[in-house]
Design brief:
266 residues, 9 strands, single chain, six-stranded mixed β-sheet, UDP-N-acetylmuramoyl-L-alanine:D-glutamate ligase, alpha/beta, three-stranded antiparallel β-sheet
Length: 266
């Protein structure tokens, strides 16, 4: 029996709540073996990002080639890509290795509000990575930033932005509603065939560090296990919602604490 393997290409979070660390925890919690390519080191905690040290693009390439030349990768999750040269390196290797599933989480801003992507890199993200993704997972501010538009507030506006993002070349977009208002947090899975609204109760907690990273990696884990896209998205949303609901069992840091990836186990 083949072991399902997922790969995360993302930045490291020194406090362990987001980025590579959140991705590997999500993979493990969902029964998938995780491999990792580090694009950047961050000096970060629950209060914010103090510094970012980008990994040289040629070393990102070397990491990707090392992993793909040996491991059977079922799905790839891409998170923080740091800068232009790294985006170009990742795009080149995706073309070389052609993974079946690529979940692209366009990480631009941390939960704390710190900017994580240089302005010149946003255009490269649009042109180089989005067309190579099978699913794009922006939150409401990220969807707006990718389109140079104000943040969508109505369901119709969210659908319109989703359709404009599809036009950039990926077959599916999941616009996450965590930044919205109302009793429910509604995520919208938008594809050429229509829109699926996925609602879950909004949970009152400040421990939401790494939610976006965890959702995209949980989707990648589902795809690596052979789930179809809708099932992978539904299961990932249920996993992250439960991890947020159990987050207050942790007491970690003094800002936006982490979610509880291993809530099923302890």
């Amino acid at each position: 029996m083949m072991t399902p393997i997922a790969l995360t290409i993302a930045g490291s979070d020194s406090s362990g709540g987001a980025g590579i660390q959140a991705d590997l925890k999500s993979f493990a919690a969902l029964g998938v073996y995780g491999a990792s390519i580090i694009t950047a080191l961050t000096a970060q905690n629950t209060r914010g990002v103090a510094a970012i040290h980008a990994v040289p693009a040629d070393f990102v390439t070397a990491q990707i080639d090392a992993v793909f030349s040996d491991l059977e990768i079922g799905a790839v999750k891409i998170g923080m890509v740091a800068e232009l040269a790294v985006i170009e390196a990742i795009a080149g290797r995706l073309q070389r290795w052609s993974p079946r599933h690529v979940v692209l989480d366009p990480v631009m801003v941390a939960t704390s509000g710190d900017r994580l992507l240089a302005a010149d890199a946003v255009e490269a993200l649009r042109k180089e990575l989005i067309p190579r993704a099978t699913l794009l997972t922006p939150n409401l501010p990220e969807a707006a930033a990718l389109l140079d538009e104000p943040m969508a507030v109505s369901e119709a506006a969210i659908e319109r932005q989703g359709e404009r993002l599809l036009a950039l070349g990926c077959p599916a977009v999941l616009i996450k509603g965590g930044h919205g208002e109302g009793a429910d947090s509604i995520d919208y899975l938008i594809r050429a065939g229509g829109t699926l609204a996925l609602a879950s109760p909004r949970i009152a907690t400040q421990n939401t560090h790494g939610t976006g990273c965890s959702l995209s990696s949980a989707i990648a884990a589902g795809l690596a296990k052979g789930e179809d896209l809708e099932a992978a998205v539904r299961n990932a949303k249920a996993f992250v919602s439960a991890a947020i609901a159990e987050a207050d069992r942790f007491s970690v840091g003094h800002g936006h604490g982490p979610i509880h990836h291993f809530h099923r186990f302890y």
